């Protein structure tokens, strides 16, 4: 029987969460259409044995790849050649799916042919409490022309996350997709170049993916982000390099998409550096010079980015980067901006 959906699960020391993750995939109807590829990235805990127990019980569903540690991207690169499903989706081992929504998705996509499957996602805390939910203004439960919605800013196309997407496997093979290895945060790449292959899409407006926030040691924790600044910088350089290489061959809409995705990741690094009290100013200056060298358009565009509606924080920093007083000023405004965003986000729930 043809597999409809391959789910690649990069796994490193996730024994606390892996059972919940894998249990969430055990749909009552349509399980035979799933392929679950657990890539054990050299875990030192019981992650591998947990995955093997599922493989023994469901040998036609679960595939195990056991490899030496190579970080997140290496897991995706190990899983892709093995995948047999018509579509491919990534699920982190500390996250999970909504089982009923997964079952509905499998039922709905049986018999359709699109480049992209879209679903919503929720962020949850350790207790399972929903913190936020993504949602998009796309046509529901029908095949639609995806690039046309790039012109609809309400659709927030540049901010689609890896949690939202599953690609047709043929598309990924065609572009010879390979994720950057040896660094964290490369899940961003999953919604970069692969998205340029999309012409048609199907949207199930329900939160399939449950994204856990607040786990100790999580890579999106602010302190962890600062420790992993090297990975974030290398990722942003990689995105710009990919943009520089392929943008001339893309339609204007996809050029714009990649441009703004790169800008988002670059601006995130400026914000982290400037918001951190003990920031390495010379490292930030070096990063800024590298962005300028890689792409003048992206460099110039960042000067117009604002916080608190008016403050062009990157331009202000560039004009005053050798003045010590500028750092506490920008740090205060960035903290204020974060507080305001958190407040308005809570009011919209």
Describe the protein's architecture and organization.
By secondary structure, this protein is an alpha/beta fold. The protein has two domains: 208 residues, Spore Coat Polysaccharide Biosynthesis Protein SpsA, Chain A, CATH 3.90.550.10; 126 residues. 40% of the residues lie in helices and 17% in strands. The protein has twelve helices and ten strands. Strands 1, 2, 3, 4, 5, 6, 7, 8, 9 and 10 form a ten-stranded mixed sheet that branches. Strand 6 and strand 7 form a beta hairpin. Helix 7 runs antiparallel to helix 8, helix 7 runs parallel beside helix 9 and helix 9 crosses helix 10. The longest helix is centred in the last third of the chain and has 24 residues. The radius of gyration is 21 Å and the shape is globular. The N and C termini lie far apart (42 Å). The C terminus is likely disordered. Keywords: Glycosyltransferase, Transferase. GO terms for molecular function: hexosyltransferase activity. It holds the Pfam family Glycos_transf_2. Its EC number is 2.4.-.-. It comes from Phocaeicola plebeius (strain DSM 17135 / JCM 12973 / CCUG 54634 / M2).
Beta content: 15-25%
What's the CATH topology name of the largest domain?
A: Spore Coat Polysaccharide Biosynthesis Protein SpsA, Chain A
- The SSE string, one letter per element, is EHEHEHEEHEEEEHEHHHHHHH
Given the C-alpha coordinates, what overall shape results? globular
CATH architecture of the largest domain: Alpha-Beta Complex
What is the end-to-end distance? 42 Å
Q: State mean pLDDT (0 to 100 scale).
A: 90
- In DSSP terms (H or I, runs of 4 or more residues), the helix count works out at 12
CATH homologous superfamily placement of the largest domain: Spore Coat Polysaccharide Biosynthesis Protein SpsA, Chain A
Low-confidence stretches at least 5 residues in length (pLDDT < 50)?
343-349
How many domains make up the 3D coordinates?
2
Largest sheet report: 10 strands, mixed
Instruction: Specify Rg, calculated over alpha carbons.
Output: 21 Å
Helix content: 40-55%
Secondary structure class reads: alpha/beta
CATH class of the largest domain: Alpha Beta
Number of strands: 10
């Amino acid at each position: 029987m043809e597999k409809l959906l391959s789910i690649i699960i990069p796994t490193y020391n996730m024994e606390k969460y892996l059972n919940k993750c894998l249990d969430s995939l055990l749909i009552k109807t349509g399980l035979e259409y799933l392929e679950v590829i657990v890539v054990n990235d050299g875990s030192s805990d019981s992650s591998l044995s947990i995955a093997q127990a599922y493989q023994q019980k469901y040998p036609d569903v679960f595939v195990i790849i056991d490899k030496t540690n190579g970080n997140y991207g290496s897991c995706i690169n190990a899983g892709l050649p093995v995948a047999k499903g018509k579509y491919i989706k990534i699920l982190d081992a500390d996250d999970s799916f909504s089982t009923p929504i997964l079952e509905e998705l499998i039922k709905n996509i049986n018999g359709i042919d699109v480049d992209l499957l879209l679903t919503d996602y929720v962020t949850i805390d350790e207790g399972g409490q929903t913190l936020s939910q993504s949602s998009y203004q796309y046509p529901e439960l029908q095949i639609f022309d995806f690039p046309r919605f790039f012109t609809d800013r309400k659709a927030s196309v540049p901010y689609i996350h890896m949690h939202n997407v599953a690609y047709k496997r043929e598309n990924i093979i065609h572009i010879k997709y390979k994720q950057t290895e040896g660094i964290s945060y490369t899940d961003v790449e999953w919604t970069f170049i692969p998205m340029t292959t999309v012409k048609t899409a199907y949207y199930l407006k329900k939160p399939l993916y449950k994204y856990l926030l607040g786990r100790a040691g999580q890579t999106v924790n602010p302190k962890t982000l600062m420790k992993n600044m090297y990975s974030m910088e290398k990722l942003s350089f990689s995105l710009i390099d990919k943009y520089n290489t392929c943008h001339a061959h893309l339609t204007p809409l996809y050029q714009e998409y990649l441009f703004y995705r790169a800008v988002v990741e670059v601006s995130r690094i400026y914000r982290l550096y400037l918001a951190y009290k003990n920031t390495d100013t010379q490292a930030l200056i070096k990063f800024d010079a590298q962005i300028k060298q890689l792409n003048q358009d992206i460099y110039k565009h960042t000067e117009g980015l604002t916080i608190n509606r008016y403050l062009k924080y990157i331009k202000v920093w560039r004009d005053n980067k050798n003045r010590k007083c500028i750092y506490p000023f920008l740090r205060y405004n960035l903290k204020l901006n974060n507080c305001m965003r958190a407040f308005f986000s809570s009011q919209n729930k």
